[in-house]
Amino acid sequence: MESTDKYIIGADVGGTNIRVGRMRGFEIEELVKVPLSDVLSGDKQPEKLARFIADYCQGISVAAVAVGLPGTLDRDCRRVLKTPNIPGLSGSDLKSIMQAYLQVPIFLENDAVMLLSGDIHRLELDRRGVYLGCYIGTGLGSALYINGAVPKGANGISEMGHMPVFGKDELCSCGNRGCAENYVSGRYLQKLRSEKYPDIHISEIFTAFRGTEEYSEYIEILSVILAGTVNLLDPTAVIIGGGVASMKGFPKEELFERVCFHAMKPVPAKNLKILYSPEREDAGVFGAAVFARCMLETHRL
Ligand SMILES: [Zn+2]
Fold first, then answer.
1. Which domain holds residue 253?
2. pLDDT value for 22
């Protein structure tokens, strides 16, 4: 089949770096990492991103390009609604701009959707299942996958990290107050470290604050948003990933216990599966490329 002879290009646009790579079959054969500021600065950032990816594709036989973005897209995944950490992309018709540079199918999605797509493949999960992805990095991204599709609502929004937490009122990057992300993300852990544990390295934070009130609150807030979504969706499995989830001392057991505590009885509490994403440097690029391959070949994920 023609498309399997060509490369699928996956790109992962993060708050600090852009990673891009090429996949043949289901193997990433090359991964390039470039500081975001080297590619996106000044004006016309959507065009700069498109040109960067088009330059990478030079001399490669390409079947499709897929890009994971750290923000929200419209329900057709054409326009970028909001990328809080990369304001230069917000509001752009990125798909049309990329299409002008690349005459191949283009797939844009939220980066958490791309990660979940890759994890379903790497964890060898049944693609007919229902999955909730929760990716805790600098912020908290989430993704839903239901029977081979990413469900889209009226506006394409799906953000577990912006569930409000009762009694909390810290201003969030989204403009609201008290969103869960502000109490469970890497940004929160950095703040906690600088305020209370300035002498330790961030990689030691879970060991440092274990047993404190903040530690119990951390687990409680994360377990409440996870269990709330579990009760709503009854997923086949929850997949947790991201840099924070792979840190030393991340409270996997306590979290599982509290999610089960808040989940409905007897099910889904009784047979709840929480899996952890394999921590890999190419996860975002791989996920994007898997997303494109599945869409290209079967029109499903
Ligand atoms: Zn928010």
1. 126-276
2. 98
- In the reported structure, the alpha carbon of residue 238 is separated from the centroid of ligand 1 by a whole-number distance in angstroms of 22
* Same domain for 286 and 178: no
Cα-to-centroid distance, 126 and ligand 1 (Å) = 32
Question: Is the residue at 121 inside a domain?
Answer: no
- Distance, CA 183 to ligand 1 centroid (Å)? 11
Pick from 74, 107, 66, 111: which is nearest to 92 by CA?
A: 74
- Vertex 248: Cα angle to 243 and 249 (nearest 5): 115
Distance (angstroms) between ligand 1 centre and the Cα of 179 equals: 5
Question: Helix H segments across 102-140?
Answer: 111-122
In a domain, 120, yes or no: no
Model-level pTM greater than 0.90? yes
Q: How many domains does the chain have?
A: 2
| Residue 2: predicted pLDDT | 47
Check whether residue 98 and residue 179 sit in a common domain: no
Q: How far is the CA of 3 from the centre of ligand 1 (A)?
A: 40
